Amino acid sequence: MNSRIRKRWLHNQVEVGLIGEEADLSYRHEWLGKDSAALESFLNGKTDGGFAKVWANAKKPLIVVGSAVAESQAGSQILATVARYASGDKQKARFLNEEWNGINVLQRAASRAAAYDVGYAAAPSSGTTAKFVYLLNADEVSPSSIPQDWACSGSTTRRFSRRLEDY
């Protein structure tokens, strides 16, 4: 994503604003803050700076929200703020029309976006813990969610095989 933004910045002199953790990006950007208060302030026109002026006059503004926002404590508030702003009477024509969709969610995994496209919605969490976990190229699993009696380190094949027979 950053390479595509950089390409647009190099060739089209696109202005970029960032709300979130400060980052050392390979293109010029204006850091606007790191929390939902900074987002509210910016969208309500209470932020000064060059990017705010460009944003106010942009014909095709773009808001990209990372999917990790939904996992944060303020996630629902942030998404609601963006939706309220983009669907407001003053902004709707700039963000959502036949030629342009200026609201995007950047997913970490393409499979997640495809699942949403076909209407998949995850079931609510059952609250039970797993008795067996087999991870094959699973990057998004927190080790703390795996019960301690199944945490494997070193050569645990015998213990693993013995426990498997319990099922």
From TrEMBL:
Coiled coil: none annotated. The keyword Oxidoreductase applies. It comes from the Eukaryota. Its EC number is 1.6.99.3. InterPro entries: Mopterin_OxRdtase (IPR006656). SUPFAM superfamilies: Formate dehydrogenase/DMSO reductase, domains 1-3 (SSF53706). Residues 2-141 form the Molybdopterin oxidoreductase domain. It is an enzyme of class 1 (oxidoreductase). GO terms for molecular function: oxidoreductase activity. It holds the Pfam family Molybdopterin. This is NADH dehydrogenase (Ubiquinone) Fe-S protein 1. Keywords: Oxidoreductase, Ubiquinone. The keyword Coiled coil does not apply. It comes from Thanatephorus cucumeris (strain AG1-IB / isolate 7/3/14).
